[in-house]
Design goal:
Layout: H1 5-12, E1 17-20, E2 23-26, H2 45-67, E3 75-80, H3 90-95, E4 99-104, E5 109-114, E6 119-126, E7 129-136, E8 140-145, E9 150-153, H4 166-172
Antiparallel strand pairs: 1-2, 3-4, 3-8, 5-6, 6-7, 8-9
């Protein structure tokens, strides 16, 4: 009887290795009943992954800045106001000393993205006062597009791990104040019951 390489390897040293899912796994670390020790990575994979996720925000804002907001899409962007490079008027900083959320939907202007410098700026109206904000991407803590139930949370350096669950990210977003958020449309769509258009049976006299 001929044995495959994997079978011969296992039979020759069954305590040393096991073939699981086509991958050789060391079983010596698990002899005491504990899980195998995960080696410490010498490459900053977590940092690279966080940078790649933030690129979604960069691409989304750059697209809207160049082509406008498509359809019913709208963005919620939360950021830390106490981070270096954030430019916020003093009156807003007093109201939001740590974090604030802006809404990009109906009324905003001059959305500019400087990817090499790592920031974006945008014009919004706060209480009827036109204001320009400058926000480094490193200060962004959350980004969401509620129209398609898409959301991500980020953590500035030194904070806890981010949450990749879109629903959790949407729920965790701070609720924007009506004044700093983009203004609502002048007229809201009216909901009309379909019963008003249905034929009614003739009344009996």
């Amino acid at each position: 009887m001929m044995l495959s390489f994997a079978q011969a390897q296992t039979r020759s040293n069954p305590e040393r290795s096991a073939l699981k899912g086509g991958r050789m796994e060391d079983t010596e670390d698990g002899r005491d009943g504990g899980p195998p020790q995960q080696p410490e990575s010498l490459l900053p994979y977590d940092v690279w992954l966080e940078e790649a996720r933030r690129q979604v925000v960069v691409r989304a804002l750059a697209h809207v800045g160049a082509q406008g907001m498509p359809g019913e899409h709208h963005f919620y962007v939360s950021f830390r106001t106490d981070r270096p490079g954030v430019v916020v008027p003093a009156r807003l900083l007093a109201q939001y000393p740590h974090e604030m959320t802006i809404v990009l939907q109906h009324q905003f202007w001059d959305l500019q993205v400087d990817e090499p410098a790592g920031w974006f700026s945008i014009g919004l109206s706060f209480g009827g006062v036109p204001t320009t904000l400058t926000v480094p991407f490193a200060a962004v803590t959350a980004f969401a597009d509620p129209h398609v139930q898409f959301g991500m949370r980020f953590d500035p350096p030194g904070d806890e791990a981010a949450n990749d669950d879109p629903e959790a990210a949407l729920k965790a977003l701070p609720q924007p104040d009506p004044m700093p958020a983009a203004a609502e449309p002048a007229e809201k769509p009216q909901v009309v019951s379909l019963d008003a258009f249905r034929r009614r049976p003739p009344t009996k006299e």
